[in-house]
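Posting for a labmate who doesn't have an account.
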Amino acid sequence: MKRRKENRELEVLIEDCKRGNSKAQMEIYSQYFQAMYNIALRIINHEAEAEDVMQESFLKAFQKIDSFRGEVTFGAWLKKIVINKSLDAIKNRKAMISLETASDLPEDQASETYLKYSDLSIEHVKEAIMKLPEGYRVVLSLYLIEGYDHDEISQILDITNSTSRTQYHRARKLLAKKINELKAVS
């Protein structure tokens, strides 16, 4: 019953946004900004740039809110905008590793080590993810954190399904290595 009420309240807010109601826009912004910022930050790995992307994403969402048809949840619709804007930001700064070049990186024997999950902290994982090359971090974040499958990732990034799988596999190995390095230091 509570969920239905929340859904109805969101529907009303969206309709108010379609009519240009800035108070409704602010309400939606306050409900979603933290989650959308976290998505942008995981992909971009730069706080100020993630804030900019989040702001641009909300602006675009409110400009295009008439195109929201309710076929997916509003959060999923907004999340797709944030992901696309984040990927655009990476492309614009031309710092993304070419996926073909990244697939030529040498395999590292140290990355074969297994993690001891019992003493693994969230902070170690977050820090290690942020140290991954952008190409790896994007695929890993889209797959593990955002829940996209390899077919969806391949469409979002305009790569093949096998490239997505390879990037994910190598990102996991490199992540394990970086976590183990961080654990050794602490």
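Reply:
Got it, the structure tokens are right above this. The chain has nine helices and no strands.
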